[in-house]
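Continuing the series of single-chain predictions for the mutant panel. This is the parent chain; the variants come on the following pages.
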Amino acid sequence: MDSYRRILGAGVLGLLSVFTLAASAQEEQETKAKKRAALFLGALGKGDTKALRDCYAPKVLVKGGSELLREKWGLNPDGDPQKDLELDRDKLLEGYMKLIAKAGDRWSTVWSRILKEEGRITFSNAKEANAPFGGVKKGDLVVTVVPGDSDDRFVYVLRADAKGQWWVVVEGADY
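Parent structure:
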C-alpha cells in the first residue's frame, strides 16, 4: 500500500510539474509579447517607421474603417475604406510616413500623452478566434489604445510566429 501511495504521489507531483512548466512557459510568452508590444508602441509614439518595420509582420490586415484606408494615403486600390485590406508591411509603412508627416508635432504630443497616462493602453489575450474582430486568433495579444476622452480605440494584434517572435499582424486605428 505504501508503494502504491508513493507511485501515486510521484505521479501527481509529476503532473503538477508538467502543469507548472506549461503555465510558466505561457507566462514567458505573454511577457515576450508585452515587451514586443511596448517596443512597437514606443516606435509608433516616436513616429519611427524604421523601428516599426521590425515590429510588423510581412503582411498586415488593416481593418475596415481605419484611417490608413482612406484615399488620401494611397494604400487602398479599391477605394472602399470600410473593407478590410491586407497590406505588405512596406506599403503600410509608406502610409504611416505620410500620416506622421501630415500630423507633424501633434503626432508625438498625442502619443507622448497616451504612453504616459495610466489606463490608456490595455493588453489582453484573445480567448477565442475573431474576437474582438475578424483576423484575430486564439492566443494573440490584443493591444487596445484609448487616445483621448472619446470612444475612439486603436487596436493592434500581435501574434507569435513559429520561432516565437511576436509581430503586429492586424490593426484597426482611425487616427
